[in-house]
Amino acid sequence: MKKIYKRIAAGLIYPLLAVIIYAFFQLLALTGFGGFKGVADTFGFFLPFTLSVGLAAGISRDNSGASALAGCVGYLVFCASLTSIIQSKLVFNMITPIQIGGSTASTLSFFFLCACITGITAGWLYNKFYNIHLPEWLAFFGGRRFVPIITSVYALFLGAFVAQIVLAHMN
Question: What is the pTM of this model?
Answer without folding.
Answer: 0.81
